[in-house]
Amino acid sequence: MSESVPGPFFTTATPTDHVHQEETSNAGYFEVIWLLNLWFRICCVDEVAAAHADCTALVHFGEACHSAPTDKIDVKFVLGNMPTFIDEFGAQLKTVVDQLSSENIIVLMDSCFAHEQNQIVDIIKDIVPPTRHVTCANLPSEHFLKEHRENVYLGREIPTALRENLPADLIFCGFPNSPLLPIWLLSYPSCVTVTHYNPIEKTIQHE
């Protein structure tokens, strides 16, 4: 497969990797097929159904855990933007902040809430002691993917503290049944505590 530079939410595959060069009277003709996701969870890309439909590219709407990235077909993720209710998050965090014990605090967010990740980080920095180091597992930019692909996992930039296996408190902002959280904790056991903020119910739970 040819090497390519991906966009922010594209795989390393490119359309020319999959399109057969054939003479046809339908030049310039594109067919759009709507696929129901038949995978175990709707956050996964259904590349199997796409292959059966002989698709050359796939647009995935909604939440995506990025747990099983594919290089078999081009994928564009349309994640959507849902509110995190930042003021409510700050109020809830104050009730559990004394239970955060690590020097490093990692922020992880389900994709549809990640558009407000900078505001969430700022709120945390305002609440926790200034000696704490707060970093966010950001959705990577195109430049970051190009230059630091080895530091991207589950569709996120991996903070230095986790790459160095340092103890960290994880603050997760996402759905109560999000598949991202358990996969993340299995991948990074140095997260010693988990604070889970649920923007849907505006509640927080610390473990």
From TrEMBL:
Protein family: Belongs to the DPH1/DPH2 family. DPH2 subfamily.
Function: Required for the first step of diphthamide biosynthesis, a post-translational modification of histidine which occurs in elongation factor 2. DPH1 and DPH2 transfer a 3-amino-3-carboxypropyl (ACP) group from S-adenosyl-L-methionine (SAM) to a histidine residue, the reaction is assisted by a reduction system comprising DPH3 and a NADH-dependent reductase. Facilitates the reduction of the catalytic iron-sulfur cluster found in the DPH1 subunit.
GO biological process, one term: protein histidyl modification to diphthamide
The protein's name: 2-(3-amino-3-carboxypropyl)histidine synthase subunit 2
InterPro entries tied to this protein: DHP2, DPH1/DPH2, DPH1/DPH2_1
NCBIfam families named among the record's database cross-references: diphth2_R, DPH2
Keywords annotated in UniProt: Iron, Iron-sulfur, Metal-binding
GO molecular function, one term: iron-sulfur cluster binding
Pathway the protein takes part in: Protein modification; peptidyl-diphthamide biosynthesis
Superkingdom to which the source organism belongs: Eukaryota
